Amino acid sequence: MIKPIKVIEVKSEIGAGTRGASLGVDAIKIAALDFGSNYFKKYKSVEVKTENHLLLEPVVHDYAKRIKGIYNLNERIASEIQKALTKDGAFPIVLAGDHSSAVGTVSGIKMAYPDKKVGVIWIDAHADLHSPYTTPSGNMHGMPLACLLGEDNPDRAQNKPDDETVEFWEKLKNLGNISPKIGYNDLVYIALRDFEPQEDYLIKKNKIRIFNLQEVRKKAVERIAIEALNYLDHCDYVYVSFDVDSMDSRISSGTGTPAPNGITEKEAGNLIYYIMRSKKVVCFEMVEINPTLDKENLMAENAFEILQKATNQLSHDF
How far apart are CA 119 and CA 246, in angstroms? Predict the structure, then answer.
């Protein structure tokens, strides 16, 4: 049976340090129009209510900025994902602003399949393994994987968050009444290259599998896709998260935290193409497009082409 596709739009940027990612979804829609595509007419979509009004209010929690809003937002995302997978029998494609949305996405998958093991393919320049105890910035788009892993990283703690921050961090980790939602052996990084010592400690301690740029170039993306999926063979389902800053900074200026030595847009597209062929993949998420930092909407155009490659693979039977 071929599952219907449901696009879930999350125009939120409260987890980011740079403004503009909330405009990313509309930038992709403009790219689709420029390509003459009916993508957003063809597929049913739902827009999740954001908490972007908090950007106009003072930051209260220095080590987890706007964490109340992040919690409320991710609760809504989780509900939409759960509904898409169970009630609608659909394949959710999440188009989001900042990467903190991944907490809600994976929580929703686990809420839909509480007894199943979920694997994560994280295509990103950054590790996103900080907690309020270790963060240098307080920006929550650097924390989603730690949250999903139930990881505080006390061995490398450098901050003392206030009681309310701790309370909401615990609530966020336990979203859907499941924590942790994934284990370290359920996680694969591709194109990771920019992370702090606190994150490096967790990566080495837990022997997280990383396919870096050198390995991508040596083996080519089809092989990387196969090896990543094989590594997660013990998982029942796989969630794919694509942060556009996984691509090289020369082509990814339209994102808040670009990093050099990334994959090309062609490599990204082909990588997604091969990963999405797996019948275990149940959700795809694309994040961190920021048209305010871009020229001529180039990042969104690249992203839309990758989105099309991902979607085209979903026409096979599940």
Answer: 19
